[in-house]
Write a structure and sequence with these properties.
The complex is a heterodimer of chains A (435) and B (143). Chain A is of the alpha/beta class. Chain A folds into two domains: 322 residues, Rossmann fold (3-Layer(aba) Sandwich); 97 residues, 2-Layer Sandwich (GMP Synthetase, Chain A, domain 3), CATH 3.30.300.30. In chain A, 31% of the residues lie in helices and 24% in strands. Chain A contains eleven helices and 21 strands. In chain A, the strands form five sheets. In chain A, strands 4-3-5-6-7-8-9-14-13 form a nine-stranded mixed β-sheet, with helices on both faces. Chain A has a four-stranded antiparallel β-sheet with strand order 10-11-12-15. In chain A, helix 2 packs across helix 3 and helix 8 packs parallel to helix 9. The longest helix of chain A is centred in the N-terminal third of the chain and has 22 residues. Chain A starts with 6 loop residues before the first helix and ends in a 7-residue tail after the last strand. Chain B has 143 residues and is α+β, with helices and mostly antiparallel strands. Chain B has two domains: 67 residues, VC0802-like; 72 residues, ACT domain (Alpha-Beta Plaits). Chain B has five helices and seven strands, in the order βαββαβαββαβα. The longest helix of chain B is centred in the N-terminal third of the chain and has 11 residues. The two termini of chain B are 16 Å apart. Classes of the chains: A alpha/beta (435), B alpha+beta (143).
């Protein structure tokens, strides 16, 4: 039997969803025009007034918002609510240039928690479940989001955070965790660790909610088999709220977008033209219920396909495919956003040539990132300890910039291929994007 | 009086060392001594050769990262205790050793030590006082 958290909303008629979206969009546009100089300027530049937006049919008239805009507006430029009404920030990883800081009022936290509660319910979660949250807690949205959702459901929540596998498994056994929430690569790692210890009989897991990074159908089957669970995908981004922007139901055929809160569009990333159901393009979100940080037509850079086809689960909200790629060069490594330009900045600051190669792979079900850098005369010494020390300085600088460990490999000069025109900087060996 | 040590950066990959030595052979470079400092992903090959200038030039031409550094080469009797003796002299004189390596020649009963220290002048002075013979690059080339 399918579980819902808010069946009236999740299974509402298309007409009802349309009505909610129309009304909420008009209200939100009016509010951001009045409260946020940034939006007002942008709309004035295009000659658009709030009254030009009468329904979702007018959405296409509004300008897009990009990550660069968020950077320019950092930190308070897009805040639509007085700071004293805000109760929380969450943030993506990365340095100031690429970091996104999102603000939440209590109302915003509540609706985000509700979205996550819908995802947990879709995975079969009830107040009898023990929800084991192994996403990181802190600025990262993974932990707080699923934690909040689990509270809404009334499940017993284990705020494990990431790491310390030994303790994770012990709690899983002792507390009888039934739903595991973490990144798919960590789930695969946990599954393997449980098998190595021969503890699979002591695990009571029935479902897993895995997101924050790309994973394949093969990985899903592997995790499902090893843990004896059903594995559900979940999607989200800090800019829009966090995990739970969309989530998978029992039919496992795409993720339902919470359309009462977020309007989804798919556009041609080159032209900005809005595409139809079934057409592959860049996903764009408009927040219509958030108070503090209601982004309008935010370009996610994730490539996917939308489908309004009737779903066997009974939900009526539109479904999106897993991201099928990116329309920029951002990499997601261990759930952390990495731009090649960030790595380039560090290399140049440390006196290395701008010729480098990034290799992303998956070792033992965990992402690994390596940067190959060409050795220079200046870097060299006949003393290995001196070279190793310089290498370590680079590793430390990369860690400070990205927040994750990057393996540095020094290679001979002129051995990294220089391609004609645009250099091939990234080799992603994970093959995560299918289709 | 020092010798000119050539140091070369070599990636830690199968065949890289063979590539380097093959390249040196093509240019008729004769090695007198060789030592490798290895780390997880690269190595530093240090060598004493018959013709350091030529070696340095051909390495540069082929894109190797390398350097020439002055190092001490001392002649010691090939018998137990002779290395300990010079190390004690250096230690007593407060000279810190970065690294060292040994080589033998066809000359009977003599061994050579290449010593890399922070202060060559000081090391030469205290070794000289104790009658330890340091050899020059010319002597190396003729060995």
């Amino acid at each position: 039997m399918e579980h819902y958290y808010q069946p009236d909303i999740e299974c509402a008629s298309r007409e009802q969803i349309q009505a909610w979206q129309d009304e909420r969009l008009v209200k939100t546009v009016k509010r951001v025009y009045e409260n946020v100089e940034f939006y007002r300027k942008r709309m004035d530049e295009k000659g658009i007034k709030p009254q030009d937006i009468q329904s979702t049919k007018d959405l296409h008239k509004l300008p897009f918002l990009t990550k660069d805009d968020l950077r320019d507006a950092y930190p308070y430029g897009l805040l639509a609510e007085p700071l004293e009404n805000c109760v929380r920030i969450q943030s993506t990883s990365g340095t100031t240039g690429r970091r996104v800081v999102a603000f939440y009022t209590q109302h915003d936290i509540d609706l985000w928690d509700e979205c996550c509660a819908r995802a947990i319910a879709a995975a079969g979660g009830t107040n009898e479940d023990v929800v084991h949250v192994s996403y990181g807690y802190g600025l990262f949205t993974g932990g707080p989001g699923l934690n909040g959702g689990s509270h809404k459901i009334g499940s017993l929540t284990l705020p494990m955070s990431s790491g310390n596998t030994e303790r994770q498994i012990q709690f899983m056994c002792d507390m009888g965790s039934t739903i595991l929430c973490c990144t798919p690569s960590y789930a695969a790692y946990l599954a393997e660790s449980i098998h190595e210890r021969g503890l699979q009989d002591q695990i009571k897991l029935k479902a897993g909610i895995f997101g924050a990074e790309a994973w394949t159908e093969e990985m899903r089957r592997d995790i499902e088999e090893k843990l004896g669970i059903k594995a559900f995908d979940i999607y989200g981004l800090t800019e829009i709220s966090g995990p739970g922007v969309s989530f998978e139901c029992s039919s496992q055929t795409g993720m339902h977008i919470n359309e009462d809160h977020f309007i989804a569009e798919v556009i041609n990333p080159e032209t900005g033209e809005v595409l139809l159901d079934g057409e592959k393009g860049e996903l764009v979100f408009t927040c219509i219920t958030k108070e503090a940080f209601p982004l309008i037509r935010y370009r996610t850079r994730d490539i996917c396909i939308l489908s309004h086809e009737k779903c066997a689960c009974g939900r009526t909200h539109v479904k999106m495919t897993k991201p099928l790629g990116r329309s920029d060069d951002m990499l997601i490594v261990k759930g952390v956003n990495v731009f090649p330009s960030q790595i380039e900045t560090v290399l140049l600051n440390q006196g290395y040539p701008a010729n480098y190669q990034i290799i992303v792979s998956r070792e033992n079900n965990s992402d690994a990132i390596e940067v190959q850098v060409e050795m220079t005369q200046e870097m060299f010494s006949d003393n290995a300890a001196v070279v190793t020390e310089r290498e370590k300085k680079l590793v430390d600088a990369l860690k400070a910039m990205l927040g994750i460990y990057v393996k540095v490999t020094l290679v001979n000069p002129k051995t990294i291929a220089r391609s004609e025109g645009k250099a091939v900087r990234v080799i992603d060996q994970r093959n995560l994007y299918q289709g | 009086m020092t010798v000119k040590q050539i140091s070369v950066f070599v990636e830690n990959k199968a065949g890289k060392m063979a590539e380097l030595t093959d390249y040196l052979q093509q240019h008729q470079i004769d090695m007198r001594a060789l030592s490798i400092a290895e780390t997880k992903d690269f190595g530093i090959v240090r060598m004493i050769v018959d013709d350091p200038y030529k070696t340095s030039c051909i390495l540069k031409e082929s894109g190797y990262v390398s350097s020439i550094t002055p190092a001490l080469a001392v002649e010691i009797p090939d018998e137990p205790g002779s290395l300990a003796r010079i190390l004690k002299i250096l230690g007593d004189g407060g000279v810190n050793l970065d690294y060292m390596y040994a080589f033998l020649t066809r000359k009977k009963s003599t061994a050579y030590m290449v010593l890399r220290v922070a202060d060559n002048e000081k090391a030469l002075e205290i070794l000289g006082k104790q009658g330890v013979h340091a050899i020059s690059q010319d002597e190396i080339s003729e060995l």
